[in-house]
Specification:
Radius of gyration: 21 Å
Strand order of the largest sheet: 3-2-1-4
Shape: globular
Strand content: 5-15%
Largest sheet: 4 strands, antiparallel
Number of helices: 20
Order of helices and strands: HEHEEHEHHHHEEEHHHHHHEEHHHHHHH
């Protein structure tokens, strides 16, 4: 079974009031682009993806189909070093998140606002990262999404889990008003949309649903389809054939199983020169020539091409200027790794410039905390990841973008990614 039927069957067995972590057939078959899907609080559907890195295949290799979480018989009570201090700090934390400009934007449109921010600087992936301005952006931007939600009875401002005060998720219905998908994200829209020269939100929502059901990373899926278009296997913008490729992964055909091994494998098999991967993983929806800080993050993050490891674009400081980008990425990567140990990254952005997280941790654990100590958690994390990579055979030479980013100029800005290997290697010194 794929994830939607898996969840339905498990709820019939264990009751409706459960949460489920599961894999689809992609994970069972060991696809390198397979995800782990998690049910979300409002809809109960497996629409939240642990997507990157082929995590679904890890569960599949251990013969784990699903993990069911039911309500505890006894609620766990945490012991606090100073509960009064914790409660006061936690209240401040919630107020900071609720009142931030970032939260207001995320609550009103979700992560798709990145379409609006990135296209004016040619920062979207367009036709396999050609660094162009996307002409049909009005069909896939924030306004287009909100209009579709209103037309079909969808919703925005939905929390993905209990206790969330940001509510960046959404519920997207089909033209008949029936639930189609939720958590309809920027990355899904950009990688399967403009990256493949497709500007149809209804189609992209169907892609989102299919990938969640089969258990596929939508970023890797969109990058792989674009590489197939690059090779001439299907035409640019061909929605029908693009969706057919996803169906092939679902059905496990010979070519579908090849597609499931990801962008790098497919690109090499089809003799494509322009393969947008780092350390074997597809680059996500930020153009490295026109957003050079993101290029630094893609090249250097231990996971390879992981945008959440250091979203320099979120600061509004990213761009084509070469100078500060390595230092900027290093700082954001350290902060992001700290956030990944503690909370939602979007909530973390809302706390910028505040010491409230240090006060929260001081109330829980005691001792003296400041933000330098909080960030040190992220630095230790990255050092552990880097050590793991070194033992696995990676070197500094793997901290490198595909060659075409260094040689092909952006037709919009005239830029190439011009940060050298020597300059990139300084990131760990920072």
């Amino acid at each position: 079974l794929n994830t939607y039927k898996t969840v339905e069957k498990l709820k019939n067995e264990f009751g409706e009031d459960i949460e489920v972590i599961s894999i689809g057939t992609a994970g069972e078959r060991g696809y390198k682009n397979s995800s782990i899907q998690v049910t979300e609080a409002i809809t109960g559907y497996p629409a939240r993806a642990l997507a990157r890195g082929g995590m679904g295949s890890v569960l599949g290799s251990k013969n784990i189909k699903a993990i069911v979480i039911s309500k505890p018989e006894v609620v766990y009570e945490r012991k606090f070093a100073d509960q009064k201090k914790y409660k006061k700090a936690n209240k401040r934390l919630i107020v900071c998140m609720k009142n931030s400009e970032e939260t207001e934007t995320l609550n009103s449109v979700g992560t798709i606002f990145n379409i609006d921010l990135n296209n004016p600087v040619a920062g979207l992936p367009v036709r396999n990262f050609r660094a162009e301005y996307y002409q049909e952006v009005e069909n896939i931007n924030s306004d287009a999404l909100v209009n579709k939600l209103n037309q079909n009875g969808g919703k925005h401002g939905i929390p993905c889990q209990r206790g969330c005060v940001i509510g960046c998720s959404n519920i997207y219905n089909d033209e008949k008003g029936n639930y189609l998908t939720s958590g309809f994200e920027y990355e899904t829209v950009a990688m399967n949309g403009c990256n493949c020269d497709i500007s149809d939100l209804d189609y992209l929502a169907k892609v989102s649903r299919m990938c969640d059901d089969v258990g596929l990373d939508t970023i890797e899926t969109g990058a792989t389809i674009a590489v197939c278009m690059e090779a001439g296997k299907i035409k640019w913008g061909d929605k029908k054939e693009a969706f057919h490729l996803i169906k092939e992964m679902k059905e496990g055909t010979e070519f579908g199983q090849l597609l499931g091994q990801g962008t790098k494998t497919v690109g090499k098999e089809l003799n494509v020169e322009r393969i947008p991967t780092v350390k074997g993983q597809a680059i996500s929806s930020f153009e490295p020539r026109n957003m050079k800080g993101m290029g630094v993050t893609f090249a250097t993050t231990p996971m390879g091409a992981d945008h959440t490891a250091g979203i320099t674009a979120a600061l509004g400081a990213d761009g084509t200027e070469k100078g500060p980008q390595v230092f900027l990425s290093s700082q954001i990567q350290a902060m992001s790794a700290a956030a990944d140990n503690l909370m939602c990254l979007f909530g973390w952005f809302a706390l910028a410039g505040s010491n409230v997280m240090a006060d929260v941790l001081e109330g829980i654990y005691g001792g003296d905390w400041d933000m330098d100590k909080v960030i040190s958690i992220g630095i230790k994390t990255i050092k552990m990841e880097k050590e793991f990579n070194n033992k696995a055979g990676f070197t500094d030479q793997d901290d490198h973008l595909p060659d075409f980013f260094y040689t092909e100029k952006s037709p919009y800005t005239g830029e190439v990614f011009d940060i050298t290997q020597k300059e990139l290697s300084k990131i760990y010194q920072y």
